[in-house]
Design goal:
Largest sheet: 5 strands, mixed
Strand content: 5-15%
Radius of gyration: 30 Å
Number of helices: 19
Shape: elongated
Order of helices and strands: HHHHHHHHHHHHHHHEHHEEEEHEEH
Number of domains: 4
Helix content: 55-70%
Distance between the termini: 94 Å
Strand order of the largest sheet: 5-4-3-7-6
Number of strands: 7
Structural class: alpha/beta
């Protein structure tokens, strides 16, 4: 341990510990042995490299040695080691912090790292594995959110991009194997957030296509509206969308902004962040890469939507049946109140002015119906029955 030039610090530390154990068994005084274990962990800069290499059975003792050698700084040192930890050492760091009364600081640190996008794959893996454990459930409760799923997708995509071979990604495996995980993470999601996450999944490079479809099925079970994404992928074609000229121009402008401005700006941000050094610990790089994933998902969705859009002036609507471009008076069975709705294109919704898309639940239910017909529309857990009192044409009112 003292003389060899072929040992790294982790091997030297482990060897020194074995040497000292042997000395105690033999009743030999080890106080004069060199190097001392404490001296091998005295330089904080050496600790991450040691943590990466020490044997699993020695990890706990390594943390105890840090605690003894750095009594004032030990907590912060172990938090820093946890942040870059992997495998069994992640669990050892967390257990050590909890057992030494740092559970509250640990919960705060995990939330902060999530906000800063600094939760690495090993820590994410530990979180999802332990989310229901009696020991850690309370500590992790606030982390089990859609934001965590976004972080998981980013970590999987990042690992897939960094991998030189087609090796397995543990975080991707548990997302597939734990059938309750997506439901847990989406429990507080709204439909728009769920759809964004589903789009992110579809563009993720860390999953095979069959696995993506299986995971999307779990999204659809909670948010049936996401079915349209799967149908589009499966059939290779999409249902045509009727849209107004104004809404089409707005979508086109949004697309051009993403392609011509946001994506180039993001590429520059990635290049700049990459120059700052170690990508594993580079929060600016991680944030820029996550922004890239979101932008590419938005670009793909806009391309698909614009590709299936058909511009209309709604002049084809009639007063005989409800169609896209109809103004409809409907009477609610519950209170007898009559409300006027204008049914326009897929992107023309303006709820404040009672303008609804024909893709909404109410709009879809009214299509093809005649005056006097009734429709039943679900609103959450409730059902409302409406009777059509009259139909007129939006094109006529717009012209006047």
């Amino acid at each position: 341990m003292r003389d060899s030039n072929q040992l790294d610090n982790a091997e030297r530390l482990h060897g020194a510990a074995v040497r000292d154990d042997l000395a105690k068994l033999l009743g030999v005084n080890d106080s004069d042995f060199e190097p001392l274990q404490a001296s091998l962990v005295s330089d904080v800069r050496d600790l991450p490299a040691i943590a990466d290499s020490i044997p699993v059975h020695f990890q706990r003792r390594f943390l105890e040695l840090i605690n003894e050698t750095h009594p004032i700084e030990a907590r912060d040192i172990i938090f820093n080691l946890l942040k870059i930890s992997q495998g069994k050492f992640t669990t050892e760091c967390i257990n050590f912090l909890v057992e030494n009364d740092h559970a509250d600081e640990l919960a705060a640190a995990l939330k902060r790292w999530q906000t800063e996008q600094n939760l690495r794959a090993p820590v994410l893996l530990w979180i999802v594995k332990n989310r229901h454990s009696k020991k850690f459930a309370k500590l992790l409760n606030d982390l089990i959110t859609p934001r965590l799923l976004s972080a998981i997708f980013f970590a999987i995509d990042y690992e897939a991009l960094q991998a030189s071979t087609a090796r397995r990604i543990p975080l991707a495996d548990i997302l597939s194997e734990d059938t309750e995980l997506i439901a847990d993470l989406l429990a507080t999601a709204d439909p728009e957030t769920a759809r964004d996450l589903a789009n992110t999944l579809m563009l993720n490079q860390g999953f095979e296509e069959l696995t993506k479809k299986s995971l999307l099925a779990r999204f659809i079970k909670i948010f049936p509206s996401i079915q349209s994404l799967v149908a589009a992928e499966a059939e290779g074609k999409d249902e045509q969308l009727l849209v107004s000229r104004a809404s089409h121009d707005r979508k086109r402008e949004e697309y051009e902004t993403i392609v011509a401005k946001k994506i180039p700006e993001n590429s520059k941000a990635i290049a700049t962040a990459r120059e700052h050094g170690d990508l594993k610990e580079n929060s600016e790089y991680k944030m820029a890469k996550q922004d890239q994933s979101v932008l590419m998902a938005q670009k793909a969705l806009l391309e698909r939507d614009l590709g299936r859009a058909r511009i209309t002036d709604f002049s084809e609507a009639t007063v005989d049946v409800v169609s896209v471009g109809s103004i409809v008076d409907i009477t609610a069975a519950g209170n007898g109140q009559t409300t006027r709705y204008t049914i326009l294109g897929a992107w023309d919704g303006d709820p404040d002015n009672n303008v609804i898309s024909y893709k909404t639940a109410l709009g879809a239910a009214l299509l093809g119906k005649k005056p006097g017909d009734s429709v039943t529309v679900k609103a959450g857990n409730n059902e409302e029955i409406y009777t059509i009192a009259g139909i007129s044409r939006y094109a006529d009112s717009a012209a006047s």
